[in-house]
Amino acid sequence: METLKNMSSIHWEKLWEEISVGKTPSTTPVSEYFWSLLPKHSTILEVGCGWGRIVFECLKRDYKVVGIDINKNEVEYLKKKLLDEKINEKVKIFQENI
């Protein structure tokens, strides 16, 4: 089974090939190919989690998540959204500078 550890550069390029010109990664869906490389029920570290787009994608796929972002407003927004949706047992969010 292929994992993120043993991926060649060609595989990394494949992860981004679906991004259209004029779009940024934050507006592009994460490829199902990418998700297939992650071991099920892993804990994912998201550096720069912002308002939580990827955090929620991870939770939807039953991953645990640790998120970190320097932006206090976005972290507060994300924590409130997680609390409102009663999702907190699988996620830890921190406002820090790495």
Model description:
The protein is built from four helices and three strands, in the order H-H-E-H-E-H-E. The protein has 98 residues and is α/β, with parallel strands linked by helices. The radius of gyration is 14 Å and the shape is globular. The model has no long low-confidence stretch (mean pLDDT 82).
Order of helices and strands: HHEHEHE
Quantity of strands, as a count: 3
Q: What summary fits the major beta sheet?
A: 3 strands, parallel
Strand order of the largest sheet: 1-2-3
Question: What are the low-pLDDT stretches, counting only 5+ consecutive residues below 50?
Answer: none
Looking at the structure, what is the overall shape?
globular
**Percentage of residues in helical conformation:** 25-40%
Helix tally equals: 4
The share of residues in extended strands comes to: 15-25%
Radius of gyration: 14 Å
**Strand-pairing-aware structural class:** alpha/beta
Distance between the termini: 32 Å
Please provide a brief summary of the model.
The chain is an alpha/beta fold. It contains four helices and three strands, in the order H-H-E-H-E-H-E. It has a three-stranded parallel beta sheet with strand order 1-2-3, covered by helices on one side.
List keywords for this structure.
98 residues, alpha/beta, three-stranded parallel β-sheet, 4 helices, 3 strands, 16% strand
Any chance you could write out the topology, listing elements then pairs?
Layout: H1 9-16, H2 32-37, E1 43-47, H3 53-60, E2 64-69, H4 72-84, E3 91-95
Parallel strand pairs: 1-2, 2-3
